[in-house]
Write a structure and sequence with these properties.
By secondary structure, this protein is of the alpha+beta class. 34% of the residues lie in helices and 28% in strands. It is built from ten helices and 16 strands. It is elongated.
């Protein structure tokens, strides 16, 4: 494996110093204006996990009235924007702090931020070219290794561990990419933390119950092709392979893939699977407490049920791939990406409903078949209305 070693600084600052002569776009072509806008400095600084600090100094022969910042995260086309605050002037020095410390605005470390500055003056509208900034965790100084489209960021004397994580990711891409019909040539960025304390601060806000009872050893952010891995964990290579499989599922199936299928594929791809999932599955089979896995739209809230959920999801996906091969699951994901609902997608890919497929799997592992509740069985008990009689 050809690994490229570089040194990255956690508190990354990207600066542009120079003079930009910008143009206004007209309906019949590009017209230079009499006004020259000079951006003398533009810097971007990571303050992870709280936010990103943008600073700009600009001058113009005309009054600078507005400076707009447009952001795109990862490879996303959807843009978000905000405005620098200042009083109109021919020379402007301003700072904009883009907050990322809430669940709604969270951006994972290792994400590429594409941004553009647009300046409006009293004589026209100007913008500069789209630029990129790598949003790293500013608490640490980062080293990196790179192989093909994958970059792994790490800090401290753990290069060998980072290389093991890289190997597991490359192996997973080579095996699972063709099975799922997912691209393996687009960039993937991995941030490796050395202990739980480091990792917890980097994760987005989540359920305190789940966080307290289950250690998060990895998390994928599929829409920006970034993932976090607890490098100090006992199964960091397995975690990395599991999480990168989520990115492949997203690339092949989009946002509508049900959680049980997503997690099942990811655990099927795990190069170092956990025995706890198998134990939880065996217990649920013997205790007749299996979850109605294919009818569940998300992970359960109870931590004990989460373990069972993963065990069932992994087992049913393994059955789907070994029993029917790669073509149906590849087609299934493509139907999800086209926007087909889950029932139609399963019927078209497998020629049967998801419940029929689940019951095939249940029969295979020797578990009771799932019986969907009938509508009339779910109605509340009728209570006679009290009658008031007149005397």
């Amino acid at each position: 494996m050809d690994l490229v070693i570089n040194k990255m600084v956690g508190k990354t600052i990207f600066c542009i110093v120079g003079s930009l002569l910008l143009f206004m776009i007209g309906v019949n072509g590009v017209y230079a204006t009499e006004s020259e806008v000079e951006v003398t400095s533009l810097s971007v600084e990571s303050d992870f996990p709280k936010g990103i600090r943008f600073s700009i100094t600009a001058e113009s022969s005309d009054l600078i009235e507005e400076i707009k910042l447009t952001l795109r995260t990862g490879e996303q086309d959807t843009a978000i924007y905000e405005y620098f605050k200042f009083s109109p002037s021919k020379k402007v020095e301003s700072e904009l702090y883009w907050r990322t410390g809430t669940s709604s605005r969270y951006i994972p470390p290792g994400t590429t931020i594409r941004y553009q500055i647009e300046i409006s003056t009293s004589n026209g509208f100007f913008d500069n070219r789209m630029q990129e900034f790598l949003y790293l965790d500013s608490r640490f100084d980062w080293d990196m290794i790179r192989d093909r489209a994958v970059t792994v960021f790490y800090h401290g004397p753990v290069k060998s561990r980072a290389e093991e994580i890289m190997d597991s990711i490359i192996d997973t891409l080579d095996v699972m990419g063709p099975i799922l019909g997912a691209s393996i040539d687009e960039p993937i960025r991995v941030t490796v933390y050395n202990n739980i304390k480091e990792m917890l601060i980097a994760l987005p806000p989540g359920s305190t119950t789940i966080r307290r009872e289950l250690v998060t050893e990895g998390q994928a952010f599929s829409d920006v092709s970034s993932l976090l891995v607890l490098g100090g964990g006992r199964m960091s290579t397995g975690t990395a392979s599991h999480e990168v499989a989520h990115i492949l599922v997203f690339r092949a199936g989009g946002r509508m893939v049900p959680s049980w299928l997503n997690e099942g594929v990811a655990e099927f791809a795990n190069v170092s699977p956990s025995f706890s999932y198998d134990i939880a599955l065996d217990y649920a089979v013997n205790a007749d407490t299996l979850l109605p896995i294919t009818t569940m739209s998300s992970l359960p809230g109870n931590p004990e049920d989460v373990i069972t959920f993963y065990g069932q999801a992994s087992s049913i996906v393994e059955y789907m791939i070994f029993r029917y091969g790669a073509v149906p699951i590849r087609n299934l994901l493509s139907y999800f990406k086209e926007g087909k609902n889950i029932n139609n997608a399963f019927q078209k890919a497998y020629g049967k409903s998801k419940t029929e497929l689940e019951n095939e799997w249940r029969d295979f592992i020797g578990a009771p078949l799932y019986q969907a509740a009938k509508f009339d069985e779910t109605l509340p008990t009728v209570i006679p209305r009290t009658q008031v009689k007149a005397f």
